[in-house]
């Protein structure tokens, strides 16, 4: 962020955050009115107290006692009601806005994924989704309305004090300005520290998440000490940032208390001078002192909140960075009838690099996959197999060349239609914490239970599912029944079969299966996907052998293509790959 941007960042944040309240403007007006009512009833109760002291001095307290008690009770009740109303309405609005933020953030992540994950670790992203949004509660429940209350209430009190002692009004105005200057003076430091604290927290969260996700590896690879050191270093960094932040917070608070204290003293001296020298009624003394203290009260309160603006706006920046992230691919929005599209895939001179400063992941590759053909993509690690799949699924766009389906450039097909064309099974299968039946039905929400079970039978999943304690109603996923890698993979294959798309994309569909299940699944894919075009990343010999044709990738280029027999006879790249790779045997 450059200096010019930094200068306007607070204003920009206030404007864009305030716009979020537009939808709830009537409630905000009600909250502000309740806030002003709350502050004025505090003033009324305090002035009543001061008046009581005055009456006692003048010896008239017993005559007025009934009125004093009645008025004090009324002020207290009014205060309680206004306070409750302000809190309820502010928090109602704040939590609604936070929910809006969360929904929009998730939409953005969906829209820009995987671009967002390229620049942010998943732990940092989770930190924004949860922690940064939570911080916004301060702004919506305790800042926006409070600022207006802190302006309106002192103005009303100053009008009243002006009638009694104008000179003190002017002095109080000076103290109010001094109080407001303190957070403005510390603004740059507060913003910088707020940014650093939120970033350090997000990094520490990311390391903690890494520890949870990689717990198995940490234990089996004896990485415990190494991980703990790394975790400690991040926590230490976070502690230092938080401590500097708190020190500045303390200094600001101390200065604000000083302003409050000195203003009280000055008000007391001025009021005393007027009572002593100017003949003002003694009973007015306490009223004046209380009124002047009340003028500054809301101003100090809002300045106290402003001490945390650094954190609030740093969190807002991080939220908007996700909301405004640009997607890597533009959706043409061009919906087509996918039934009219022949499932023929054509890569035409495709080149792609993940970042400009990196080497090409694939370079000038061309191949055609006929409709209904089952093709395996083979190659050593890093050869560019997954990249081809990513480009085909349009998670990224090609840098040069183009990919066509049924002769149509995939950039001219809407992402929704493109998604209808493919059913994918990737290596990391995610199961939601819902019954297995519903996990499979995600493939096609309109499928009947019978259709779901038919797909599970084809994927050789039916048997093990029915043996589970609750059969198809067994809750899978985190917190549910623990399934093996192979079982999860078969559920994902059932999902793909159920979806019934004309193109099936597998990132090694059988990698987690034993030999018996691997053979069965290969047969099932051959039979069930007879009319589908199938693209498989192959890490196993069985996948390579089962394919109609193999495309061999080497260092981002197509090294050779052909049937298994042709390539074996050729004695070229595939033969060497099979000889050198243990997994391929
Ligand atoms: N997200 C990414 N950002 C930057 N570079 C990447 C990214 N993903 C892959 N690469 C690089 O692109 C090249 C091709 O990777 P790719 O994942 O396509 O290979 P692969 O053949 O699928 O390998 P593997 O069999 O190990 O999965 C590699 O050099 C890899 O380091």
Summary of the model, kept short:
This is ABC transporter ATP-binding protein/permease. With 585 residues, the protein is of the alpha/beta class. Helix content is 65%, strand content 10%.
Helix proportion of residues, in percent?
55-70%
So, the CATH homologous superfamily of the largest domain? ABC transporter type 1, transmembrane domain
The Cα radius of gyration reads 34 Å
CATH class of the largest domain: Mainly Alpha
What topology, given as strand order, has the largest sheet?
6-7-8-3-9-10
Q: What is the makeup of the main sheet?
A: 6 strands, mixed
User: Please, how many helices?
Assistant: 22
Beta-strand share of residues: 5-15%
Q: What structural category arises from helix and sheet content? A: alpha/beta
What is the fold-level CATH name, i.e. the topology of the largest domain? ABC transporter transmembrane region fold
User: Would you tell me the overall average pLDDT?
Assistant: 86
